[in-house]
Please model this.
Amino acid sequence: MDNASVSAMLHALQDPAGLPAPAWIFQYLNVLTWSFHIAFVNLSLGAGLLAIIAFMRRQQSAWARLSVAMTGVAKVAVSMAIVLGVAPLLFTQTIYDPSWYTSNVLSAFWVIFFIFSLGIGYTMWFVFYFKNHDVSHAAQAPDTTVWWATGALSLLIFDGFIMHMLSYQGLFPQKWMQWYAPHGVPVMNGMGIHAFELPRFAFFIVMSLTMTGVFLLGYARYFRARADFPADYLDLAHRIGVKTVYWGVALQLVTGLLWAFGLPSYMQVFTQPLFWLTLVLIVGVALYARQVPVGGSALQAYSAMAFYALMALIVSVDREALRVAYLAPFHYDLASKPHYEWGAVVWFFATFVFVGGSLVAFYSAMLWKAGKVKGLYTADRTVARLGDAAVWINFTWLAVFFAIGVWAYVRNIA
Model:
């Protein structure tokens, strides 16, 4: 298909309902929310790998404790990755609907397989967690227990590959008809894996090491407030964190450069300031982590995590910029999509800021303070007030939501 035909096809496949606001709002939100999502994907994979390695060295008490801790971290991180993956998925479906839905139809078998394998993988990780949720269980667990974790991690990585494949196939609309009907014969089983780019996929996977490394720096600093966390254990976590960051950054540079060399020449990636900014930030994470001393200040340790967050955000910008560049020859025009509906936009942002903000503020404050206390935590006045405010804001939101629904129903019936 020539570019003009592909452009016409993309326009025909767009949802006629369009967007309720300018497309750039959705693009920015897509970039922001995807950076949160990939951070927890990275943490789940990196913490999972470290949990397995530490479990195999559980004869030493510090390693056994680290395995237990990382097993719990990975368990929570997977659930957070799933929850935070909903927003960028919805934004992608909204602004790149022809690409996303076509890719899903072409590889429908793997879309369904993703759902089942994610559930199976997460269940397998819970089996490992139940056998390794405290040091006494870890000491008694047989060596074969690690296979539950290995199987779970393998499935989660393969699920990541499926998501990579679905996203990547959407970048090549000129090949969709060829994939759908090779030699003019439609293939309806949805089992095809038509396009993938291993350096790109590997880049996002090895980011897990970088994320887990900076997380360990924060972990080692945070729990120094607890008397039941030995200093030698936290020192070990810190040293492992620094080494893990080194490995993650080195592998990111290798896979990132391989990815860049494989991009189409018309993108001229090596002349783009964004490319060099990304390289600087990746290297900067390692350089910053290196200078964080064992037992250093909270600002030093948590700043390393903030440095990773900035790098992940710029990587998310890179990802969106590449998608725009891949679709540019076909004049995929987001500006033609908006059918403004400002009421929906105001309602969305009000929900995002007030409902989401109040809940995040409450849970963040509660978890931050509860983690510093051994045993039962009793909320102080500030946390209690945040909780009360979150409850009332949510009840108010529900009341207004149903009131608008009743008003719209009565208005349209009348």
The chain has two domains: 3-182+196-340, 341-414.
